[in-house]
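User: Hi! I'm a student and our assignment asks us to look at how structure tokens line up with a sequence. Could you show me two examples?

Assistant: Happy to help. In each example below, the sequence comes first and the structure tokens follow. Example one:
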Amino acid sequence: MKNGSIRFAIILAAISCAFCLLLPVHSQNNLDVKVSKDVLYERIGDVSEAMDIYQPAQTEGVLPAVILFHGGGWSAGDKSDFTTLAEGLARAGYVAFNVNYRLATAEGNKYPAQLDDVQTAVRWVRAHAKQYDINPNKLGALGASAGGHLVALLGTMDTRDNSDKALAKYSSRVDCVVDFFGPTDFAPKGLKTYSPLVMGILLNFFGKTPKEAPALYREASPVYHINSKTVPFLIFQGTSDPLVPYSQSVELYKDLKAKHIEAKLVLFKGEGHGFSKPEDNQTALQDTLAFFAKHLR
């Protein structure tokens, strides 16, 4: 299982970089970027989690923001995977918050630690809206794979743990979601679509088998939290993904539409866990920027 998680993280890092490198080249603006590295947003015991913040250096008024969550099987990866994407978004006129969260290990940090972290990150961003000149009601989220799963939860769930009094009045639900091939259904029906490699990653993530904790697996599944409060979604998925079957994204899309939630699903024929064709990456880039412009501008 450990080796499988490492292989998964290596795949995700390569995918993230392949997508992110496109964005600065095609940004409509050429703004200089101010970067604040390793800004602490959470401390739990001896563990601290931080984010990097990318701002257009010269702006007037408040800006929309995009919060980024890396992939890596919930057990690997780092905010540095999305550095280029964050810089590109800042040049396009957004404030980008590039976030680390606790990684699951054999010893601990099991779900819902990651959900609590990303929800805390969103509430922290809202609490510091004035400091970073952002509109707290214009927050988008983007994630890939494990990060895609987490942003899907940010668009479908309210705060799970609201015990932090300093952040209690701030919502953790973002205003729109861009989900790159994130898993969506861990209930028994959905689990039938996953490979043995991914099942090993899920066991590390949850710390229990589906038979031991069926309610936990269902709770972590975005498709079971869709309701009238769910935000607009843009979903990207390759039809030949060996890790997250495209049926997972199709299920999410259909469930969103059934509840009359705005959603767009872009399937790339023959693509895997990430997109190798330049034209597919270009489509993903253009659709992402158009989606954020529609919902955050």
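Example two works the same way, sequence first and then tokens:
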Amino acid sequence: MMDDFGRESLSPYRVFSVEDWAKLRADTPMTLSEDEISALQSLNDPISITEVEEIYLPISRLLSFHVEASNALFDTRKKFLGVTDGKTPFIIGVAGSVAVGKSTTARILEKLLERWPGRPKVALVTTDGFLYPNSVLLEGGLMERKGFPESYDVSALLGFLTRIKAGEKRITAPVYSHLSYDIVEGETVTIERPDILILEGLNVLQSRDLPKDGKAVPFVSDFFDFSVFIDADEEAVRRWYVERFMKLRETRFKDPRSYFHKYAQVSEMEALDLAITLWERINLPNLRDNILPTRPRANLILRKGEDHAVAEVALRKL
């Protein structure tokens, strides 16, 4: 991975081929079956047991070292301060474009981590639940900016993460429905003091404009102990997005309750044109302007090839 001047030595990342990264698995046990892996993958996001062994088991091993080091530092700081605070959850952020495979990555990591020998409690939350309701987005003229930073209730998300890090016993988060394409009014999910929290979303590594008056402006990523960015060439992500849209047209969109039910009624050519238009008008600008610029802030970058499989791993140097 080259820096802006083409000098590899100045890159903050150490880059691994799949073969070299796979060697770092060492003796990390495989705890997922092929059937379990198949059930965890998202639509149009194929993943094999071989890829889990070569890519995700080494990540699991790396994360175990980070969690152990974090716990040791926490205990040392408690002694230094002379306090008896409880341990705070280790938070992992997973970022990347729409259709790149964030959800599959997050779910695979969740299952691997919760099957560590110590059986830690692992929770997975997506930032979709912190989108403003459609009624609010419509009122503000933001429906076509859904997924952009301004479409999220950042204050609510920061409040949620603050309470997580404070070690509160029971915390609720809003629920989002991909069927209705909206927040489910009155429905929440309860998070009960996890050892590890995975937060998955498009813009979780997004920074914010700094104030001129010096007031504190926390970023969502300020709460992360580790972060992963799922990366791929723009054209590949475009193709995956369009392919997924066309598959949804034959599945979820056929449900009369679906927000996108009307797209199941149009011709295949009309649907294809619509998918391309949505990509170019909404998702591509969001990728270029908001998501991709956050890639250098990640601890780990998983670079996918044309076949959706991870082809390269970049780990930030300490």
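Here is something you could point out in your write-up. Residues 1-7 have pLDDT under 50 and may be disordered.
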